[in-house]
Amino acid sequence: MERMAKFSMTSSPSFTTLVFLFLIVGCTARPFYPLPSKESDGNRQPLQTSRPYNIAHRGSNGEFPEETSPAYTRAIDEGADFIETDILSSKDGVLICFHDVTLDDTTDIAEHKEFANRKRTYEVQGFNYTGFFPVDFTIKELKLLRVKQRYTFRDQQYNGKFSIITFEEFISIALDAPRVVGIYPEIKNPVFINQHVKWQGGKRFEDKFVEILKKYGYKGSYLSKDWLKQPAFIQSFAPTSLVHIANQTDLPKILLIDEVTIPTQDTNQYWEITSDNYLDYIKEYVVGIGPWKDTVVPAINNYLQAPTDLVSKAHAHDLQVHPYTYRNENKFLHFDFHEDEYQEYNYWINTIRVDGLFTDFTGSLHNFQEWTSSHTSDDEKSKLLHKIAVMVSSYEKT
């Protein structure tokens, strides 16, 4: 709530928007619901399914180095519905949580002189990359590395303190949460992984991925009893990977969509995978799409343009839409939002009407959804409005 100090009652679009949201509480076309309170019988509170999902993109990585245990536990504390991760493999076939195809940008690999001779150049999705690749390191070696913050303008105090975690360790974080928290793992770079890592019996990366999910009890179609007990979405930019695992698990799957100029890992073009014909085909395998948000609403010179028909088209095919990635920093916010992330959330949830949002800042999205919930009690509303009045009064006196 400290951010309220930058609002002005008479001139700030941020303040006007927030007050307007409070005034229309209970009257919005799309109902919002707070997370259910913990049940008195001691069971874990269930996953909320009545408002767009709060998907913690690589954990709360706006605060902690991405894909680390603290990033995920922090996201859970802040109200995430799902914690999201990218799955790669070590040289010896252990699945790990790591985003980049190389270790260079987000670990201290450069400080480990014993690995200096591991630098390689590989082709990944038609491009040559040079660096240190996880597929050239055993899990024991990868555990020696420490993760660092990707962006220099974010908190650097946790650099070098946390290790890379495995897929199984990631799952344990979700299962150990005090409430039901879903997982949202990505089958990352499957073509590349299958070229460089081999498993016994001719198994593929995707097969090992599903094996681990089954090992920990993840199963069930979307909103089924089994799924609600341990919710999971499987995501990938590679349609063939999603099709490959269709007969292995009925867990819901999400087809990720990159920028319009970037083909899928199966070399499909953007216009192909967003056509009505393709959506009609792929809906037999997936429950939704996860597009880069600028493909949903393009921007020119950092100003939003007219939305495309991608969301309405997906919804017409009964597909959910979970765009990525929402970030609080001004450099990531379009000018239309006046440096106010809550205006951005309001636009995407109430105007574009998406079904889930990948965010680096789980807490801010959770707060927005809580503050605009039509199911907040009158007493809670009164207390919140009183807090706003006190803060505004304080601001006017300074």
From TrEMBL:
Q: What is its EC number?
A: 3.1.4.46
Q: Which GO terms describe its cellular component?
A: vacuole
Q: Name one GO molecular function term.
A: glycerophosphodiester phosphodiesterase activity
Note the SUPFAM superfamilies from the entry: PLC-like phosphodiesterases (SSF51695)
Broad enzyme group: hydrolase
A GO BP annotation: lipid metabolic process
| Chain intervals for the UniProt region annotation (Disordered) | 35-68
Task: Print the keywords alphabetically.
Answer: Glycerol metabolism, Glycoprotein, Hydrolase, Signal
Q: Which Pfam families match?
A: GDPD
Which reaction is catalysed here?
a sn-glycero-3-phosphodiester + H2O = an alcohol + sn-glycerol 3-phosphate + H(+)
Q: Which residue ranges run through the membrane?
A: none
Q: Where is the GP-PDE domain?
A: 52-369
The stretch of residues making up the signal peptide is 1-29
> Which PROSITE patterns does the record associate with it?
GP_PDE, PROKAR_LIPOPROTEIN
User: Which spans does this entry mark as compositional bias, Polar residues?
Assistant: 43-52
Q: Which family does it belong to?
A: Belongs to the glycerophosphoryl diester phosphodiesterase family.
The protein depicted here goes by the name glycerophosphodiester phosphodiesterase
- According to its UniProt entry, this protein's organism is Quillaja saponaria
